[in-house]
Every structure is written in structure tokens, then in C-alpha cells.
Amino acid sequence: MTTRFISDLHLSAERPDITGLFVQFLQTEARQSDAIYILGDLLEYWIGDDDDNAFHRQIQTELKALTDSGVPCYFIHGNRDFLIGEQFAERTGVEILPEPSVIDLYGRRTVILHGDTLCTDDVSYQRFRKVIRHPWLLAVARNMPLSWRRWLAIKLRDNSSGNKQLTAEQLAKYDAKDQAIVALMNDTSTDLMIHGHTHQPAIHAHNVKGIESTRIVLGDWYEQGSILEVDANGFELKSQPLATP
């Protein structure tokens, strides 16, 4: 069997092509998986489990169908959907994991995370993240009026590079930094890391205290679907064409 990882879908009602591919994925190869891991930014934004609309209900229904079929699904918060909470988990059957999390991936100790904490050169974002993700402020945010939370979602979207065209200098600034990567792998005693966020899908080699280690970066779904498949024999980072509207 196979374990599959996805991230940075940024699902929204305005992109039915992305949603179509995601639903197709949940109804086909996802059903043949040992587990599905969603490493953040599943939604373009999520301002609270009480923001009930038809599009969000559709996504939750599809996820519930997957977990009801017997496939476990795990989720780590991204920078767009960190307000996903326990009501979402109950409606979907998805288990929310802390960030970072360490899992046993076919005998290999693996650290998984969204990835934004690795982008340490983006100092202004790291300051903003530290404030906005403080447990006290999260509790306050969940009790804000929906209109205020919509403003917050716009602010977060404006603070994210998203799918904008970036210069080489900007790409370097927003990318994960080797010092943060090695430190986390060392702290978690892992030699495999999987994350998203940077929208730069690739497989990287790192040296962690003399051990050859691997970092796999998942791609976003703006132009194609990006799926990492892992089994006992290895891994493959795949892309799929978006669904025709």
C-alpha cells in the first residue's frame, strides 16, 4: 500500500478546476492509501468552523466520505487555515496533528510540517506568525465576529506570496533555510522531512550530523496537482493535470 501527502491546494469556490481534481483524488487513489496527510493550506482561507457555506460543506462532505471508507486522514495547519478546529475534525473524521509531527513512515522516522517556520529569512512574517498563532490570540480570534475574521483572512492572504510572480531574490528570501532544516531534523532525530508552503516542489539532500538526510517539498495546486506517494520501496513526487471546469 501507499501513503500520500498533499499541501497548498488553496481550495476556493473560484477555482473549480482545483476542487475538481481534489475531489477526484479523494474518490480514487486516496481510497487505495494506507493514509492521507494534508500538510496545510488545504483552503484558500478558513476563518472558523462556524463559517458555514456551501463550498466548505462540500469539502467537509468529501473528506468525511474518505474517512468513512476506512482511510485515515491527517491534517497540519497551514498559514491560511490555522483556524481549522475540532468541529471541522468531527465533521470530517480528519485528525489534526501538532506541528511539527514525527511519524513512522514504513520504518523511517519522518518529520512532517507545513514549512513556513523554516523560512527564517522572512523576519517580518515570522514575527507576524508568532503573534497571530499565540494560543491566547487564537482563542480570541475564534470568538471574533465573522466580519472581523474575514478581514484577518485578507490580511493573511496579503502577507503571503501565494501564486504571485516572484523574483529570484524574493524566492530565496521566502524559501526554507538550511540551518532551520538541519536543526529541526536534529532535534527530532529524523532523516526524512516532508513539508509544503514554499510552492517549490523538489527533493533535497541534507547532511545532519554526518547522516545523509532527505527533504521532500510538496508543490502547490495552482497549475497542477502535486502528490507525494510513499511506500516501503521508496517515494515519488507526482504531478497531475487540473480538472477541466
From TrEMBL:
EC number assigned by the record: 3.6.1.54
Record bears the keyword Cell membrane: yes
Annotated positions binding substrate: N79, R80, D122, S160, K164, H197
Cited InterPro entries: Calcineurin-like_PHP (IPR004843), LpxH-like (IPR043461), Metallo-depent_PP-like (IPR029052), UDP-diacylglucosamine_Hdrlase (IPR010138)
UniProt GO molecular function: manganese ion binding; UDP-2,3-diacylglucosamine hydrolase activity
Topology of the protein relative to the lipid bilayer: Peripheral membrane protein
Residue ranges constituting the Calcineurin-like phosphoesterase domain according to the UniProt record: 2-201
GO cellular component: cytoplasm; extrinsic component of plasma membrane
Cell compartment(s), UniProt: Cell inner membrane
Protein residues bound to Mn(2+) 1: D8, H10, D41, H199
Catalysed reaction equations from the record: UDP-2-N,3-O-bis[(3R)-3-hydroxytetradecanoyl]-alpha-D-glucosamine + H2O = 2-N,3-O-bis[(3R)-3-hydroxytetradecanoyl]-alpha-D-glucosaminyl 1-phosphate + UMP + 2 H(+)
Function: Hydrolyzes the pyrophosphate bond of UDP-2,3-diacylglucosamine to yield 2,3-diacylglucosamine 1-phosphate (lipid X) and UMP by catalyzing the attack of water at the alpha-P atom. Involved in the biosynthesis of lipid A, a phosphorylated glycolipid that anchors the lipopolysaccharide to the outer membrane of the cell.
The name this protein goes by in its record: UDP-2,3-diacylglucosamine hydrolase
Origin species: Aliidiomarina shirensis
